[in-house]
Amino acid sequence: MAKLEILHFPDPRLRTRALPVPVVDAAIRQLIDDMFETMYAAPGIGLAATQIDFHQRLLVVDVSEEKDQPLVFINPEILLRDGVEEMEEGCLSVPGIYDKVQRAERIKVRALDRDGQTFELEADGLLAVCIQHEIDHLDGKLFVDYLSNLKRQRIRKKLEKARRQGEPDPVAEHGETAL
Amino acid sequence: MPAETVSARTLAAKAVQQVVQEGRSLSQCLPALLAQAAPIDRSLTQELAYGVLRWHARLQQQLQQLLSHPLKAKDQDIGCLLLVGLYQLIHTAIPPHAAVHATVEAVRATGKRWAVPLANAVLRAYQRRQTELEARADAQPTSRYAHPDWLIEMLRADWPQDWQAILTANNERPPFVLRVNTRQGEVASYRAALQAEGMQNTTLSVAEQALRLDQPVAVERLPGFADGAVSVQDAAAQLAAQLLDVHAGMRVLDACAAPGGKTSHILERSPELAELVAVEIDPARVPRIEQNLQRLGLSAQIIIGDASRPDSWWDGRQFERILLDAPCSATGVIRRHPDIKSLRRTADLEDLTVTQSDLLDAMWPLLAPGGMLLYATCSVLRRENEQQIERFLQRHPDAQEAELRVAWVVDWGRQVSHGRQILPGAAGGDMDMDGFYYASLIKRCEDS
Questions:
Q1: Residue B152 maps to a domain
Q2: Of the four, A8, A113, B187, B346, which is 20 to 30 A from B199 by CA?
Q3: How many CA atoms does the CB half-sphere of B386 hold within 13 Å?
Q4: Do B139 and B180 sit in the same domain of this protein?
């Protein structure tokens, strides 16, 4: 297993439209494991392949409190959408930024699982929001796209500045001490 | 999408509350709290928790004056958030409006709506009355030095010339000191590797493998850290392996080994040892020793056992060198662990001095004639240090004190009646080391 690097807005690679996964093989399963490790370490509840610079339609999700309900969606399609819900969203590719986004309240999704088997799932609440958010990534779309131009520019500047400063660590782990 | 995270102010206040109310140490409670922070907020959370505990006695005194009546016991969460708020206003570059806003939001998030106007009022009143409140805080020793009274008194008695400098040094931020693993490469070449990364650093004449970084960094960013090229350890602690003066073929005992910093340093310096036995009483801390040794590519025989009861683990073969890095008040490393000021009690000191003398007595029979026992503490209190050795020498006529030499530096720390004392930071001179004490005890050969 390996932790992967997550791309950060405004990296242009986040705008790539992903192609379908042609075959669910051992390499894809390895990638899925690495994506879970990366997501849990972040810590996150969802991660799309686009965010780790792999441009096939694949995402992983776990919205459970105990982090024991991993879900894999390969080549996902949303079959039904119902209702409207507004939730505060963030994104591992847009660290530290949170804002309200409107999405469908309930969805029905069809996808392949990690063995390449087709399944369908109905979701609502946080899970529904998370799946929609991650599928957006596969289409090169970010949650900040739903915000006003002004807000998006402000976020872009803030993240570019944070990157330049390299996030100093004022009280870095002192590790070994005499205690 | 990121997992739901908790704000830096909320987490820092929780850390402060767990230390002050529940008596847990920051190193115990902070990791679980940091895991709930957004990655971008982790360093701020840590800075706020350490900062509030560094200035806790002073901030608390100021908060009392800003409250018309004290908070109830069940509202200490609000009290801790207000301390976090005050700390930001006084000690950080966070713009005051942002500090107030973020703190008030954290108060709102507790669900105690009555406290929202209170938080606004307290923080704004501080801004208005800053000059007066700071002057009042300076007027009393506890708030002026941000240390408990008993410790100020004890330091004043032990160090009549230096107590103020010690208290001041304890409230400074500690330097970030590395120890180069010379099994993997020269100090000079690691220095160059750091400089290539833009990490400016200086050597320290007294500690041979030490480099002090100008700016602290996360350890993962240090070149070769994961592969064991380097460790983080203060220069004062690095003197232990130098003073122990081990040679090829010796059997060496590290009696209180966790987290293994000194154990691994001894092995890095002396690959030809016959054996190094590392004893640790707390099983929970043994994995830290193992991880450190493994990262550095070293191995030692680790025994989980009580060093004060060697009959339960000792095989009867004596050691030529024993390092006794004894449990102590840790009053020399307050700048690294400001929570010590809230956690330590005078009663602990009595227990600790008993433990120390028990350990000294228990270790002595394990030392071979002609061998050396190095006694070390990270304390600056005489009762744990020179007075402890004084009593030991009275109890053990076959013990003799030896000179403490490090490298070519003749004068380091401070010669006291027995052993040498390093005072912390600027109180100890321009080496800027942690407060430490060392004494070297030699067992006389029977025929001499």
A1: no
A2: A8
A3: 13
A4: no
| CA distance linking residue B142 with residue B58, whole number of Å | 7
The span from the CA of A144 to the CA of A174, in Å, is: 37
Identify whether B259 is preceded by a cis peptide bond (ω within 30 of 0).
Answer: yes
Cα-based angle B306, B311, B316 (whole degrees, multiple of 5): 120
Closest in A43, A95, A172 to B3, CB measured: A43
pTM assigned to the model: 0.81
Based on the fold, state whether residues B31 and B119 are members of the same structural domain: yes
pLDDT tens profile B265-310: 999 999 889 999 999 999 999 999 999 999 999 999 999 999 999 9
pLDDT in tens, A15-65: 999 999 999 999 999 999 999 999 998 889 999 999 999 999 999 999 988
Strand A46-48 and strand B201-203: the pairing is unpaired
Look at B3 and A172 and tell me if their CB atoms are within 8 Å: no
Residues B180 and B137 in one domain: no
Amino acid identity for residue B378 in this structure:
C
Residue B205 and residue B100 share a domain: no
Q: List the domain range (segments joined by +) for residue B201.
A: 176-232
| Residues B139 and B282 reside in one and the same domain | no
What would the pLDDT profile of B431-442 be if each residue is shown by its tens digit? 899 999 999 999
Which residues of chain B make contact with A45, given a CB cutoff of 8 A?
Answer: 1-4
Q: Report ipTM (2 d.p.).
A: 0.71
Nearest to B303 by CA among B319, B285, B320, B318: B285
Closest Cβ opposite residue A89 in set B1, B5, B330: B1
In chain B, how many domains are there? 3
